[in-house]
Design a protein that fits this description.
Blueprint (H helix, E strand, L loop, with lengths): L1 H22 L8 H8 L2 H9 L14 H7 L3 H9 L8 E2 L5 E2 L1 H7 L3 H9 L17
Antiparallel strand pairs: 1-2
Helix pairs in contact: 2-3, 2-4, 4-5, 5-7, 6-7
Amino acid sequence: MKRVRDFFRLYFLANLLFLGSFALAETALASPIHEAAVSGDVELVEMLIANGADVDDRDVHGYTPLLLAIQAGHTNIAKVLIDNDADVNARAVNDGGEEVTPLDLSILLGHGFTEALLRRHGATNPHPPANLPGPTP
């Protein structure tokens, strides 16, 4: 069963790498690592990084894979990205036109472990946007 899963994971990876710019152009995601960060597949994220994926690549809205992983609730993906030197202070603009950081999202979405992980790796200056769900710290 593991061989079948690995085959499909590699097939998916090959398609993302080969068709990435075409297949993902129809979505807001800029690259295969954005797609993998949202999917929650740790092994796929690790394979992409091992094959040269940029952990700080930006999508059309300026979101990095780390911001998307945190928004999707994938702490394990966030840890892999941070362990591979993702920018813990990356800023993007949300739908309300306000600047948002990984720490902002972690606090507002109640991801305490991710918040602590970000702080341990130097994340600073949270300034929660008013229109994201969750309590204001």
